[in-house]
Amino acid sequence: MTRVYITIDTEYSSGLCVGRSRADRVENYARSIACLTPEGPAGLTHKLELLKRYGQKAVFFVDPMPALIWGIAAIEDVVEPILEAGQDVELHCHTEWLRLAGADNPLASGRTGQNIADFPLDEQFEILSYARDVLIAAGAPPPLAFRAGNYGANDDTLRALSELGLVYDSSHTPALPEACRISLGPDIRDPLLHRGIIEVPVGTIGTLDGGQRHAQITALTLAEMLAAVRHARVQGRGAFVLVSHSFELINRRRLAINHLVRRRFSGLVRDLAGMRGVSTATFRDDPPPLAMGSEPSEPVPATALRTGARLAEQFLSNTLYGAL
User: Fold this and answer.
1) How far is 96 from 161, CA to CA, in rounded Å?
2) Which among 92, 165, 187, 254 could disulfide-bond with 63, CB atoms 3.0 to 4.6 Å apart, if both were Cys?
3) Mean of the pLDDT values across residues 275-284?
4) Number of separate domains in the chain
5) Helix-helix angle 222-235:304-321, to 10 degrees
């Protein structure tokens, strides 16, 4: 059985943060978490309802750092509906919020940075300890898994996570080696023990030029994602990770649903429910097994047909709906 981890980075937008008032928080929640549009919600509640409809599981990596601006209530609003739906809440962290926090920065140095890897080990530990404690205070169980904002972790991040008692990290993205600084190569595509943590890489597909493309809802068509999962099943891989975000089904500035991307997500949840030899899983209830073989697994090879269909679909999506 291949475990498929539908992971959803669930986060307020630091780029849309314009103030500390409750009204500012409500507006950011509406655009980044709930994704409220004139056609109805397309964010957290929409995804939870789809998962319930098809009996599927997902992992919600929740970023607690906005509590620096709006307090723990902002994180409670995110955590509560996920737990009520019986889904997995794990830890996410965007350090961009430290710059917005100003005097409320929990670091004595007042240091800020775009990614967690921009900080020395001791300060990474402080940041992650703060984020974990806020997540728990917001009602979540102690987290077992982590993903860095922007995938921007390094080996010190893993050391800090291990010291904090976490077991899994899913920041390594073989198709985006410039994003993550963890010392693993692009051929590492299956879970392994690294620096005291089980690293669970983000899934990939092959490209026509011999490279890789990451398995994110906005980066692949439904056909490519399903082909990648089937290929993982045929290879006997124990885990395959897909990435989404709380806001990916809409254009946040225009508050317009991206119907192409929404159909991808709903089709993914529906089709995985009927796929033999595959189950959706969580880190808490059905954790990823370590890879057994000595040879690295290979991504599903690219085809001209699937690639051409993606390029056409992406062009249409960008033309009709614009950037996120």
Assistant:
1) 19
2) 92
3) 97
4) 1
5) 140
Instruction: Please name the amino acid found at residue 57.
Output: K
Q: Which domain holds residue 235?
A: 2-321
Cα(40)–Cα(57) distance, rounded to whole angstroms? 23
pLDDT (0 to 100) of residue 295: 81
**What whole-number distance in Å separates Cα of residue 136 and Cα of residue 160?**
18
3-state SS, residue 213: strand
Q: Which of 149, 134, 141, 143 is nearest to 243 (CA)?
A: 149
Tell which residue, 30, 125, 20, has the closest CA to residue 67: 20
Amino acid at 68: L
> Which amino acid would we find at residue 67?
A
- Residue 39's SS3 state is coil
pTM of the predicted model, to two decimals? 0.97
* Angle value at C-alpha 248, between 69 and 307, nearest 5 degrees: 145
The pLDDT value given to residue 320: 87
Measured CA to CA in angstroms, residue 235 lies from 190, 240, 261, 291, 295 at distances of 12, 11, 28, 12, 12
Tell me the one-letter amino acid at 79. Answer: V
Spatial separation of the C-alpha atoms in residues 206 and 228, rounded to whole Å: 9
